[in-house]
Amino acid sequence: MAEFRIEDWLPQEPFQGPPLPEFLNIYWPWYKPPAAEFIVSDLVISPVEIEIGQVVTISCLVTNIGAEAGDYTLKMRGDFMAEQVVELGPGESKTVSFEVTPTEAKTYSVSVNGLTGTFSAIGVADIRVENLAISPAEVLIGEKVTISVTAKNYGTAAGSKTITCTVT
After folding, report:
1. Can you list the pairs that 129-133 forms with residues at least 24 positions away whose Cβ atoms lie under 8 Å?
2. Model confidence over 2-59: pLDDT tens digits?
3. What are phi and psi of 97, to 5 degrees?
4. Distance CA 137, CA 18 (A)
5. Average pLDDT value for the chain
6. Measured between alpha carbons, how far apart are the two ends of the chain, in Å?
7. Beta strands per DSSP E along 47-166
8. Do 119 and 139 meet the contact criterion of CB atoms below 8 Å apart?
9. Alpha carbon distance 45, 120 (integer Å)
10. Angular region, 156: left φ>0, alpha ψ -120 to 50, beta rest
11. Phi and psi, residue 16, nearest 5°
């Protein structure tokens, strides 16, 4: 069911003639409706949580509610900035997407023509065991052996790793 607003039934401006309901797209012959008029809706951020370096897609729906074709510039602002121009005919809609890649662990804010949202980038622990050293290399039963390794975190977040040494 269509949603009606009181503004749709209010008198039009005098140059438009006697009041007619705008939602029916009825106009007097001397009045020309707006050429191209756009609405931006349905902001989608996907995924909303990622690891640093992964791609996030920010998209929205642009609809031309005007009577003629036209160009519209979508502007993404916030922690990322970008612009895209979309050309739409009357009544036409198109989903427009931006792709961003965060470089640090934090919550990012984005805005596309007034629609706002957030997503989070998290760091990941990447702990690697390196530089295995066994001294002495050969021993008799009962002799002492020293085994050492270096554990280094190459990731962007704190973490832990269990290191197990088995001697057979």
Report:
1. 129/161, 129/163
2. 565 655 555 555 555 555 555 556 555 666 656 789 999 999 999 999 988 899 999 9
3. -125, 145
4. 101
5. 84
6. 77
7. 49-51, 56-64, 70-78, 82-88, 93-100, 106-112, 115-122, 127-135, 146-153
8. no
9. 11
10. alpha
11. -85, -10
Side-chain-side CA neighbours of 14 within 13 Å: the count stands at 0
> CA–CA separation, 107 vs 119, rounded Å?
6
What does the pLDDT look like over 89-109, one tens digit per residue? Answer: 999 999 999 999 999 889 999
Please tell me the CATH superfamily of domain 34-122, with its number. Answer: Immunoglobulins (2.60.40.10)
Spatial separation of the C-alpha atoms in residues 65 and 73, rounded to whole Å:
15
- How confident is the model over 49-83, as pLDDT tens digits? 998 889 999 999 999 998 889 999 999 999 999 99
Cis peptide before 136 (omega within 30 of 0): yes
Which single residue is written with the structure tokens 């009544």? 91
Residues of the chain with CATH 2.60.40.10: 34-122
Question: Are residues 153 and 127 in contact, defined by beta-carbon separation less than 8 angstroms?
Answer: yes
> Identity (one letter) of the amino acid at 90?
P
Interval 130-150 mean pLDDT: 87
Strand-by-strand arrangement of the 82-88 sheet: 49-51, 115-122, 106-112, 70-78, 82-88
- How big is the chain by its Cα radius of gyration, in Å? 31
